[in-house]
Amino acid sequence: METEDFASDAVLFARMRAMWQDVDPVPAELVDRMVAAVAVEDLSREYALLTLVSGDLAAVRGETDTATLQFSDGTTSVLVHVTATEDGSRRIDGWVDAAALAIRLSQGEREWSTDPAEHGRFAFDSVPPGLSRLRLVVRDADGEMHDFQTPRFEV
Fold first, then answer.
1. Contact partners, residue 47, CB within 8 Å, separation at least 6
2. From residue 80, how far is each of 33, 64, 140 by CA, in Å?
């Protein structure tokens, strides 16, 4: 193809674009809605949504001794109760509503693992204060396994 062909194609495409903008313009809010929809879809896939169930988020970092958090990705929900212990560490009690095969708690390079007990209950003892994240391997209602990961939260 010669350079003239590319120039004529560019002119043709510009005319077509102008025609469609007149006949069927893109709604003004479409781009913003699509960006938001893609961001939400990505968030639900990458991170579970954090919902504070009781207490105050600052309470996890403040003087209060307990906080309860709920994480959900729409198919799996995890309830976490953080309690300060006498030695300054934290105890984390949790419950998952799906069949969990593995549960890990991580803080930076440190990691603890546990197996869920009956009814999806799990616990971690002697966890130092700091940013933490739960990672679970769960089996959904269809029998397929998938990873569930919470956003980082302060214990």
1. 149, 150, 151
2. 33, 16, 20
Let me know: does 66 contact 94? Beta carbons within 8 Å. no
Query: What pLDDT does 59 receive?
Result: 42
Question: What local confidence, expressed as pLDDT, does residue 107 receive?
Answer: 95
41: helix, strand or coil: helix
Strands 99-107 and 90-96: unpaired
| Global confidence as pTM | 0.59
110-147 burial by CB neighbour count: b if 16+ within 10 A, else e? eeeebebeeebebebeebeeeebbbebebeeeeeeeee
Residue 65 structure tokens: 């001794």
Q: How confident is the model at residue 31 (pLDDT cuts 50, 70, 90)?
A: confident
Distance CA 51, CA 72 (A): 8
Predicted confidence (pLDDT) at residue 36 exceeds the cutoff of 90? no
Strand stretches in the chain, DSSP E: 49-54, 66-72, 77-84, 90-96, 99-107, 110-114, 121-127, 131-139, 145-149, 153-154
